[in-house]
Amino acid sequence: METKHTPGPWTAGRLPLTDSPIVRDGCGCPVAKPGRDVIAAPGSVADLQDFANARLIAASPKLLEVCISLVNNMAVPCRSIIDLRQITANAKAAIAKATGEVQP
Question: What is the pLDDT of residue 80?
Answer without folding.
Answer: 66
